[in-house]
What we know:
The complex is a heterodimer of chains A (about 110) and B (about 110). Chain A is mainly beta and about 110 residues long.
Amino acid sequence: KQEVTxxxxxxxxxxxxxxxxxxxxxxxxxxNLQWFRQDPGKGLTxxxxxxxxxxxxxxxxxxASLDKSSGRSTLYIAASQPGDSATYLCAVQGGTNAGKSxxxxxxxxxxxx
Amino acid sequence: xxxxxxxxxxxxxxxxxxxxLQCAQDMNHEYMSWYRQDPGMGLRLIHYSVGAGITxxxxxxxxxxxxxxxTEDFPLRLLSAAPSQTSVYxxxxxxxxxxxxxxxxxxxxxxx
Lengths: 113, 112
């Protein structure tokens, strides 16, 4: 059974700081990995998707990397802003559960002005 | 372009009542799924579908039924609501199941 772990559970940083969120998974036979953002009381918005054959994806101030062999992914946020405050979740698709996504519990980020 | 639409946004039920949560997408996605999100337990997959007429169980399917008669719609039925089903429910879709997932805005369900 695929298990996804996100560390830390919560993170508070001052505005302008660069930060890294971590995601690890137990079954390396995945199709892809996605990073999502969730604001309080809202649905999830996909930020970046990395296919299993890729090493990283970038969108603006966000960069996500994937090391499938070690079962790890990181989300790097550059020059953090208060508007980045949200919960960030990672999810893997495939592996032994083809067609299903398994989510981590998320990291709640607070960026202080 | 509406994306993934869920109704209702809020619902209160009494134990034993039945209801259907609606989910519709207008992106011609083959893959649709239902999740529940509970504090401290993250998002858990209830049921999913890889196309019209095809459904399968996820991690926590007990107490829920689904059907997929059209590509656009994937309703989730609670047959006899229980307090343990109090949660926030999300519907999600993607083109074939291995691409970007699009989520609805969620349904907050309370079972008294």
